[in-house]
Amino acid sequence: MRTFSHLKGLPVYEQKTGNTVGKISDICFTNTGKVQGFIVESKGWLARHRYLPLDGIQAIGADGVVVYDAALLQSFSSFQNGYSLYGERGIAGKPVITADGKKLGLLEDVYFHGQLGIIGGYEITDGFFADLTEGKKRVDAVPFTVGEEAVIVNTTM
User: PRC-barrel domain spans which residues (predicted)?
Assistant: First the structure.
């Protein structure tokens, strides 16, 4: 299991041609913790974001992501349901509140199982100094609700 921050920025290679088709810029997932895919930033003068469904990925490695065919990349508008960390439906930086009203901190990253396609947990920060002295917190993956101002996790602490 790894955090998305270790995957962000990795190149996406097309096995069919050996070419780089872009780099990973965001992760897409549901509120129940199922990874749907990734957002790939295409290279070139007219850089654009494309959606890469999880089932289009052949391998996720330490140095890159491999797809068989770049044609598997879809228009960004294909991603309509679910959430991301940084994009239009991004939840990074939002306060995380438990179902019983306790503030845990700000959502910073997600832990995910690449092979299983599930979110294993959420990384929570209390700020730079608290992270240095106490470390970051980890909350196991549980269903959540996203509002304009907070992420409510369906658990009690």
Answer: 4-67, 91-153
